[in-house]
Specification:
Layout lengths: L4 H22 L5 H30 L215 E3 L6 E6 L4 E6 L2 E5 L1
Antiparallel strand pairs: 1-2, 2-3, 3-4
Helix pairs in contact: 1-2
Length: 309
């Protein structure tokens, strides 16, 4: 018979009490600094017991609010990988939960805003990178969130490392009424502040990773998808200018990458403003442009108009 939340908590508290007793018995053999460390550890473990008790009490208090497709009985924890974590939680699929749409969570955070001054950060992670001057990309790798997904079904499941859903203009998630919102909804937003001319800053990095000779090619670096014929992106990729004008060096840079077709427009047109150049070589020695003042198309080679029409 599976253990209840209370029974599981009681077992954990008993183990913690045993550890506290063991530390107390050894306390007289510690040097002064070690005794200070032991007292701090005992205080920390006591606080952990209180926090765990409060969390379970809150869970019991909210049992009546659980969706009908969730069972109050906890399922078994999975086999954990070798992680150096202060706290590790886990669970496996609930047996018999075969209904479509049933979700399995390990941790859920929900906030509900209502005030004018509302800055909601349900999960805040501050990552302070190493200060070592000897750190390299091989010796130091920091990530605010690491998600390892293992796709192991021979079928065709849908798996996403990071998934974001936003209901723009709705009073409640998939159950509310339309709201004429004037706000801005962003599924993913990245902000970089660069204070050094050294190194490289990248807004989004997508790597088709190589592990060994069995690694296969990946399909789409970026996939712009429409959910239905009536829903589409007004701009597939939009370079937004800061103020009235913003410029960089290259909008889309293939660098040393080689494809059979660099850009495949299929049934789509290519448009640019008059006076812009359709450059035919690396150095810009030959190009085609349209002069709107004369209403002519010019082919220029080495600074000389060779033909116009």
């Amino acid at each position: 018979m599976a253990m209840s939340d209370l029974e599981l908590l009681q077992q954990r508290v008993a183990r913690l009490e045993e550890e506290l007793s063991r530390l107390a018995a050894r306390n007289h053999t510690y040097p002064s600094k070690s005794r200070f460390w032991a007292r701090g550890l005992r205080a920390s473990m006591t606080a952990s017991i209180l926090m765990a008790s409060a969390a379970v009490a809150l869970t019991f208090a909210q049992d009546g609010d659980r969706p009908s497709n969730q069972s109050p009985q906890r399922d078994a924890a999975p086999r954990f990988p070798p992680l150096d974590s202060l706290t590790t939680w886990g669970r496996t699929d609930l047996a018999g939960a075969n209904s479509v749409g049933y979700t399995t969570e390990v941790l859920s955070l929900v906030t509900d805003g209502s005030q004018t001054n509302s800055y909601q950060w349900p999960l805040y992670v501050e990552m302070r990178g190493t200060t070592s001057a000897n750190a390299t990309q091989q010796s130091s790798q920091s990530a605010g969130a690491v998600i390892r997904g293992v796709v192991r079904s021979p079928g065709s499941p849908w798996t996403a490392g990071v998934h974001s859903e936003i209901a723009h203009g709705e009073s409640a998630w998939l159950a509310g009424k339309p709201v004429a919102t004037s706000g801005t909804s962003i599924a993913f937003n990245g902000e970089i502040r660069s204070f050094s001319t050294g190194g490289v800053t990248t807004g989004l990095n997508l790597q088709c990773a190589y592990t060994d000779s069995t690694s296969k090619f990946c399909d789409n670096g970026i996939n712009i998808q429409a959910g239905a014929a009536s829903t589409y992106w007004q701009s597939g990729i939009h370079f937004e200018a800061a103020g009235n004008y913003s410029s960089g060096n290259v909008g889309i840079n293939f660098d040393q990458s080689q494809y059979n077709i660099g850009i495949d427009l299929a049934n789509n047109s290519l448009r640019m403003n008059a006076g812009q150049k359709f450059i035919l070589d690396k150095n810009g020695a030959a190009y085609i442009s349209y002069d709107a003042t004369k209403d002519v198309v010019q082919i220029v080679k080495h600074g000389t108009v060779v033909t116009s029409f």
